[in-house]
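For the sake of transparency, this paper describes our internal protein records without simplification. An entry from our holdings is shown next, in its original layout:
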Amino acid sequence: MSTQPTVLITGASGMLGRALHRLLLTSSSYNVVGTGHSRLTVTHYHEHFPPPNNDTAHSSPSAADAADSLAETVKLHKLDLLDHKATTEFIQHHHPDIIIHCAAQRYPDAFESNLEESIQLNVKSTRHLAQLCMSQPDYRPHLIYISTSYVFDGGVISKEFPPYVPTSVANPINNYGRSKWDGECAIRDVMNVAKSNNDCRGRGIIVRVPLLYGEDCIQLDESPALEMMKVLLPVAAGTIIKKKKIDNWALRFPTSCEDVAKVLKLMIDRALIDKHFDGTYHVSSPHGITKYGLLQLQSQLLNVPKNELDERAVGNDDNPSAANPLAAPRPQCTQLNCEETWSALGCQVEFTTLQDGMRRFARGFPGRFIGK
């Protein structure tokens, strides 16, 4: 049996899970156990895709192929978090010291179309993991739960406006945000019961994050910060292009999963030496931008002519929820204040600028996304 602390990552095949899994594997300090449900292998690119070069504009598919020599494929453990019996057995078998709960239904619109199963994953499986952490007979692992800035409403109803601190009043306005808030409450409920019994051998840590993007994504749909780049993909000659409206109303704070993973690693290290470490923390880049503004930046980095972008996309300054009643409503701004995070950790992570993050992400575009 390994003498290293075991860190278990749920949802290790997702954007944030992959970034954390990759980061922890680069260290010999942890025994890393990654789980997935439908995707049971992940490919870690040591320098992401593809190798750096001086010309990132409209790279050919061969550029993505060149990254294969830098890739390492890692198998994950299959775990259905909705199967509480299997989850209990898995936790008892692997005996984790830290559980990072990344698995979730994180797409607000998809959440609406599959409400019951999404609630089961985001709320009930979270409560079950918290109960497992507090019920182990011989030890108590820390549980780090990934939540969202969408627990806030942007002030539209609460009249509490950003930037938000951890103690700001939560008032989610869509079912996704409500489910993540309910997940937070489940963890607090379980930990509060333990505290009332003078049991301080386990703690819950809640980490709220904003819109995320992964530098190793191979599917634009993986992140709302990237999906609008579909309008920049090549089209067949003669194709009639329908100009797409891109949200220019909501202010987002796109944050690299690689940066969030660095903060989570600091939290893991703190939790391993401090059994009393708990609380709610915010992790977010300070760089705000609308989705249309982000598309304009991406286009500039890819050297897409402005007239070509203008033919394919236009900024929509109206609340997108008003035009599409079937879409989950979004708040206009939910900027997070991270000062309490840095105070708790005793250091501050410097976030990747949007220019640098998008430049690294766009390597190999469009070749590595065509047909994905």
Observations:
- The first strand starts at residue 6 and ends at 10.
- The radius of gyration is 21 Å.
- Residues 48-69 have pLDDT under 50 and may be disordered.
